[in-house]
Amino acid sequence: MTKLLEVEQLSKSYRHKTGLFSGTKIVALEPLSFSLERGETLAIMGETGSGKSTIARLIAGAEKPSGGEIRLNGKPLQATDYAERCRNIRMIFQDSLRSLNPQITVGKQLKEAVRFNTNWDAATQQQHVVETLRKVGLLPDHYHFYPHMLSSGQQQRVCIARAIVLAPQIIVADEAFVSLDPSIRAQIINLILDLQQDMGISFIFVSHSTEIVKHVADKILIMHRGKMIEFGPTQVLVNHPKETYTRHLLQTGTL
Amino acid sequence: MPNNSIYYQQREPSPLRSIWLLMSSNPFVVVAFWALSIIFVLMLLSPLITPYDANQQFADAILQPPSWHNEGEIRFLFGTDDLGRDLLSRIIAGSVYSLGYPLVAVAFAALIGIAIGAWAGLSSGMRSSGLNHMLDVILSIPSLLLALVIIAILGPSLFNVMLAITLVLIPQFIHSVRNAIRDEIHKDYVTASKLNGCSTWYLLTRVIFPNITATVVMQLTFALSTAILDIAALGFLGLGVQAPAPEWGTMLARSLDQVYLYPWTMVLPGLALFITILAINVLGDNLRLSIQKRVEQ
């Protein structure tokens, strides 16, 4: 049986323009490969600028890779085919308020995803959005709220609702818990774990926090300066890390 | 029948309504809004409500002062000019030239400018920059001067004035819309919508446009007051709307040599022009502020 997600020789480099024709190449991500099974949780760790956000954005389709291939259930994904990708892979952004359109109500934004990816009629779409809001612990009333009227925890819930509204197979979260306070963070993580159990979603998340990673992740991927230095099951990496960098990161929680 | 609404329900005002609530807290804006609305309604109804024809001459009532003057007559509310034409009728009929035509010019300029600007904002690289700077040459010449150049070539007429003013306003729309879209398009919420699989048209009209209305409104009011002033200025110089037509600038020019003896022939059309432009500027400025404030609330 094929794996849910296979990443092969994925790489990303930017061209920093200095003149009309000249430019320097900046490598954000050196070629890396890994794979993910159904229902598994993968944590990506590393210091700032190590390329961990880049991986998340590449998998979600927010950026185009410079090389390599991402395969979903054995089928390669096209970089620009958003419609195909968003039914299977959804992203939760780092800053929840900024990833919500300030001028449109929460409900309409969630409906946008349903509208472009299903052929349901308007009433069914609406009902589905309300059900999704309930699933993440919000009320049907929140349908008519504008993003700035919600607290940051509720905004995060809306972002999660947007991620699960299409019942995807994979959710990618880019440091989605950084700005939340510990109790809400715990609530949100429990919510995601519940959803994972209910819907069988695979979850890829980028995080700094060793505690969350140890608590949630099945596998860990360690990034350092654009390179993948270690990848393996959480137990193995925590107890028998091969690299000193991994040991520092996971055992002390500080660098 | 018992009252069913026993629960206290907080209704969120719609975007338009909340903008109006913010704006109406300032009394000047309310005054400007009503002034402009009244002028606009007068303009639309001008063929029906003018007491006399704008060009009808009354030989028995030449240079009659306004009705509140001792020598005034109530049948000529604002008095008459040196040819015995009723000033009130001329001012009301003149609003078509002085407000209606600028509105049409701005509408055309906005339509073309916003379309090109949006196209430039969504594309990238050479094409974006090419579209953006396509009409920049026009920006190097002041609007009134360009209108003069076009009129010098094509001859003075209302159509040429409209053409000149529309042309001048287009590049400003292109620039402001393109820059506004550029600022928005890399924000997370646009990426999120893209990842929803939205079409480009939906992305532009439903996702980005609601967020750049403040810029567009500001540009619209700026363009409208420029257009009104330019048409009046060209009329004043005798290059735009031609003499018998009751355009406010033309009326000002005609009354110039009588201003010391019969001041009302100049003050009244001037006042109409002044109130219109002031109302548009006050309203536009506050509309933009309210749109911004609503987002920050």
- In terms of quaternary structure, what is this? heterodimer
* Broad shape of chain B: flat
CATH fold-level label of chain A: Rossmann fold
- What is the average per-residue confidence, as pLDDT of chain A, rounded to a whole number? 84
- How many separate structural domains of chain A? 1
Structural class of chain B: mainly alpha
* The CATH superfamily title of chain A: P-loop containing nucleotide triphosphate hydrolases
Report on the architecture of this protein:
The complex is a heterodimer of chains A (255) and B (297). Chain A has 255 residues and is an alpha/beta fold. Chain A has one domain (37-66, 81-252): Rossmann fold (3-Layer(aba) Sandwich). Helix content of chain A is 36%, strand content 27%. Chain A has helices at 52-60, 82-86, 106-117, 122-135, 152-164, 182-199, 210-216, 234-239, 244-252; strands at 5-17, 23-36, 41-46, 67-72, 75-76, 89-92, 170-174, 202-206, 219-224, 227-233. The radius of gyration of chain A is 19 Å and the shape is globular. Chain A starts with a strand and ends with a helix. The relative contact order of chain A is 0.17. The mean pLDDT of chain A is 84. By secondary structure, chain B is mainly alpha-helical. Chain B has one domain: MetI-like fold. Chain B has helices spanning 15-23, 27-49, 87-122, 125-133, 136-139, 143-154, 158-185, 188-195, 200-208, 213-236, 248-254, 264-296. In chain B, helix 11 packs antiparallel against helix 12 (264-296). The longest helix of chain B has 36 residues, at 87-122. Chain B is flat, with a radius of gyration of 24 Å. The A-B interface holds A 60-62, 82-83, 85-86, 90-91, 93-95, 98-104, 109, 112-113, 116-117, 144-146, 148-149, 162 and B 12, 15, 187-189, 191-199, 202, 206-207, 210-211, 295-297.
